[in-house]
Amino acid sequence: MKILVNDGILDGGTATLENAGFEVITTKVAQEQLDNFINEEQINVVVIKNSTEIHAELIDNCPTLKLIANASTTNDNIDVVYAQECGVQIINVSDASANAVAELVFAHLLTMARFLHQANREMPLEGDTSFNALKKQFSAGTEVRGKTLGIIGMSTEGQQVAKIALGLGMKVIAYDVEFGDSITIPIEFYNGQAIDIEIDFTSADDLLKEADFITVHLASEENHVIGVKEFEKMKKGVGFINVSQSGLVDEIALVNAIESGKVQYAGLDTFENQPTPEIQLLMNPELSLSPNIASFTVESQHKIGTELANKIINSLHV
Predict the structure, then answer these.
(1) Is the peptide bond before 277 cis (omega within 30 degrees of 0)?
(2) Partner residues linked to 195 by β-bridges
(3) pLDDT for 182-192, tens place per residue?
(4) DSSP β-ladder status, 194-200 and 182-188
(5) What's the confidence (pLDDT) of residue 49?
(6) Cα 274 from chain centre
(7) CB neighbour class for 248 (10 Å; exposed up to 12, middle 13-18, buried from 19)
(8) 86 in the Ramachandran plot: left (φ > 0), alpha (ψ -120 to 50) or beta?
(9) For residue 222, how many other CB atoms are within 10 A of its CB?
């Protein structure tokens, strides 16, 4: 069987597939040429990320396609219902990138708390002439120990965020309708020791009112889960972070909340308009920004590749 690794699998994953007897093609095929390539090469499996779309027309045009392996936790780029109706299997990675996402939350959070997102912009421009002025400007940062982190969505990502927060001495409060009254999180240490920490769930309103920092980790198809009403309920001077999923946050409402002082700063890795985020976001000095890299580290990509390869083999009973 032939597998087209268009994107989404690295390192040991490809070798695992080849060792299982698959012919693996690693050519990067443009979206508009994908169906022709699949047909010409008689591809049975295509491995993609969210930058590649598999729509109904492509599925119709590619009768050899049996399985879509998506190196993502969501399938926004795939016509899932139609694929299933046509007997095309879809597999995803599960939690391979959860730690990478959680660490980026704190890259943004700590950056904002110490104004590094602003200092990194100003130092190259004025560091040689206004060093002392910049020192004074950015010396009013805050320590996160003892602060309250509100986590909306306690998926594996949210749980990883909680572990890091607890390690930093933060109070963690959480909201998630998918769980009961509380969740027990195991925290493992480098030397093999581990402890279990129980986190009680609170209401969405209480979380918004109490948290010093808020991070969102929802797998929701609903747009603007965080909008005007939610920002109005937040504590004045809150720090807000979304590195999880685009569309969850009303970006206009966020900018307005920053301008009013309700939100002091925000960290974003996903945007409503990708790959062309709004200029109002790109130029806002209170925003710490990254280009949708939350799930991408060397380690996470290796784990994703290995997991996808094994799932492909198991799905096709090789």
Answers:
(1) no
(2) 187
(3) 999 999 999 99
(4) antiparallel
(5) 85
(6) 14
(7) buried
(8) alpha
(9) 8
Strand order in the sheet with 89-92: 23-25, 2-5, 45-48, 67-70, 89-92
Structure tokens at 158: 């949210």
CA angle 203, 209, 213 (to 5 degrees): 100
Element (H, E) at 116: helix 116-126
Could you tell me which of 224, 118, 99 has the C-alpha nearest to residue 159?
Answer: 99
Query: For the residues 225-250, what does the mean pLDDT come to?
Result: 96
259 has a pLDDT exceeding 70: yes
Cα–Cα distance, 159 to 174 (Å, whole number): 10
What's the mean pLDDT in 29-40?
96
Query: What stretch of H or E contains 61?
Result: helix 56-61
CB 318 within 8 A of CB 20: yes
Which tokens in the block code for residue 252? 């206009």
Q: What predicted TM-score, i.e. pTM, was given to this entire model?
A: 0.88
Question: pLDDT above 90 covers what percent of the chain?
Answer: 83
Q: What is the DSSP letter of 32?
A: G
Rounded distance between C-alpha atoms, residue 31 and residue 23, angstroms: 21
CB count in 10 Å sphere of residue 45: 25
**End-to-end Cα distance, the chain:** 10
The contacts of residue 37 (CB under 8 Å, 6+ apart) are 4, 27, 29, 43
* Cα gap 166→185, rounded to integer Å: 11
Structure tokens at 86: 């046509």
Q: By the 8 A CB rule, do 293 and 274 touch? A: no
Paired with 173 in beta bridges are 150
Q: How many CB atoms lie within 10 A of CB 82?
A: 16
Both tokens of 175, joined, read: 């909201």
CA distance 38 to 65: 8
